[in-house]
Recover the amino acids of this structure.
């Protein structure tokens, strides 16, 4: 019964105290795989700079500029219609001035995560489909954040992009079992995370949060990843977590897993309360989600997927 204590937890201190009690062979495999995945050096340099309270923006700009691929993708993104700046931004320094260091950090993080899993075999997972789903969730979450107001829509975008990252680790460590669980969840019309817990003792949301902890990702992003399946348990970022909860369910509906807000894709009531949104608010933007997903795919994955 101690395993369930972990899922009733609402803070990381309780979670960490319960982790050892839920460890078994599969979880050790997951942790081992997570330790093998590292983010590109450029992101680590930027994070180290930003962790220093006396950092200078020029240091951030220099660290990014030393990686031509990241620089190109960052400038493509900030000059796209996604941001809609009136004039062209030609330098990293200007991008930082316009966006701020947090948004630049998050955009570099997004492209860095994509690079970290670039070599993953398509025999294990359809990576194009996976990233399209992730981008769809990011785009949907960002647009829902705009409707909510009083919310950092760019951070919510990255939170949506990363919400399913745990499945990449699970497919690398436990490919056959992970696939079987997905099929069982669909056949039984049950939420995937519940079936994963029943068979493994953990789910993809916790796996993603574990990976992000290995990477020292900001806590607010870890919380949205861990609790987007149960938004009522979010403590530090309840609005952002509720938005990503909606975005994730919209994504699954778009990918043919069911009807939004019905059956296993039913929205948790707390999400409507926290966001103030309605089902119509979510579904009325579906065409916009589709259009922006294609654009963002070409920005973050310009070579991989023909952008």
């Amino acid at each position: 019964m101690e395993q369930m204590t972990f899922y009733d937890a609402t803070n990381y201190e309780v979670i960490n105290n319960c982790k050892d009690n839920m460890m078994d062979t599969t979880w050790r495999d997951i942790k081992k795989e997570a330790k093998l995945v590292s983010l590109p050096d450029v992101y680590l340099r930027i994070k180290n700079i930003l962790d220093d309270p006396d950092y200078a923006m020029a240091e951030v700009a220099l660290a990014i500029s030393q990686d031509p691929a990241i620089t190109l993708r960052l400038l493509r993104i900030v000059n796209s219609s996604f941001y809609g700046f009136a004039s062209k931004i030609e330098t990293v320094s200007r991008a930082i001035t316009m966006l701020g260091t947090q948004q630049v950090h998050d955009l570099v993080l997004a492209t860095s995560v994509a690079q970290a899993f670039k070599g993953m075999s398509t025999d294990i997972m359809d990576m194009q489909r996976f990233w399209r789903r992730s981008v769809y969730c990011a785009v949907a979450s960002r647009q829902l954040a705009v409707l909510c107001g009083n919310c950092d829509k760019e951070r919510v975008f990255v939170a949506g992009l990363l919400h399913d990252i745990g499945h990449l680790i699970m497919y690398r460590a436990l490919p056959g079992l992970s696939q079987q669980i997905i099929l069982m969840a669909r056949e039984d019309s049950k939420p995937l995370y519940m079936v994963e817990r029943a068979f493994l003792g953990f789910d993809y949301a916790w796996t993603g949060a574990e990976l992000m902890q290995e990477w020292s990702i900001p806590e607010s992003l870890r919380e949205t990843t861990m609790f987007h399946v149960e938004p009522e348990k979010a403590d530090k970022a309840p609005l952002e977590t509720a938005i990503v909860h909606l975005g994730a369910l919209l994504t699954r509906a778009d990918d043919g897993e069911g009807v939004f807000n019905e059956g296993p894709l039913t929205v948790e009531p707390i999400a409507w309360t926290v966001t103030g949104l309605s089902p119509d608010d979510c579904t009325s933007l579906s065409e916009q989600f589709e259009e922006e997903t294609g654009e963002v795919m070409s920005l973050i994955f310009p070579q991989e997927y023909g952008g």
In short: Residues 1-23 have pLDDT under 50 and may be disordered. The chain is about 70% helix and 0% strand. Residues 185 and 192 are 5 Å apart (CA to CA). Residues 120-300 form a domain with the Hypothetical protein af1432 fold (CATH 1.10.3210.10).
